[in-house]
Amino acid sequence: MSFIGLQRLVILKVSRDEIGRYVKFNATLSDGTLEFRCELDAPTYKHLRKAIDTKYFDSLATEYHYDLILTYQFNEKVDLDLSDLPYKGVIRCTQNDRAIQVEFPCSERFAGNIEWFRKEVGSIEDIQHLAWANFS
Fold it and tell me: What is the three-class DSSP state of 36?
């Protein structure tokens, strides 16, 4: 199956609640925009949370925006015997006119979710079951 075209998801929030750890995304697809929830495993949550909590430019600034780039790679420095995560995801951190791409360790499950989104999601209907309104 080919890549559908969406290259990033806007990260609105990385947090935890009574249901569990999650990232709240905003996706704009050909048929509209939807805020949705993606569950996170504990190690991916820890690393993604750290990545978005870091102030890469100005530590006092509040205008930071984060996007998940829909790509991942195998983490060649991983030592699976030490429970390191086998993949790396990428976020784009933007503050005003400055931007940087930041890698973070992620699980096979999270990398699989990226792959699914890239290859299978083409419309809001495909992710409607994950709509934020279903969980709030």
Answer: strand
Instruction: Output the six-digit token pair for 87.
Output: 């993949």
For the question of whether the overall pTM of this predicted structure is more than 0.85, the answer is yes
Q: Name the more confident of 91 and 76.
A: 91
Checking if the pLDDT of 2 tops 50, the result is no
What residues have CB less than 8 Å from 5, skipping those under 6 apart?
30
d(C-alpha 101, C-alpha 99), whole Å: 7
Distance, in Å, from the CA atom of 88 to the CA atom of 108, rounded to the nearest integer, reads 9
Strand pairing of 64-74 and 32-39?
Answer: unpaired
Q: Exposed, middle or buried: residue 89 (CB in 10 Å: 0-12, 13-18, 19+)? A: buried
Identity of the amino acid at 22: Y
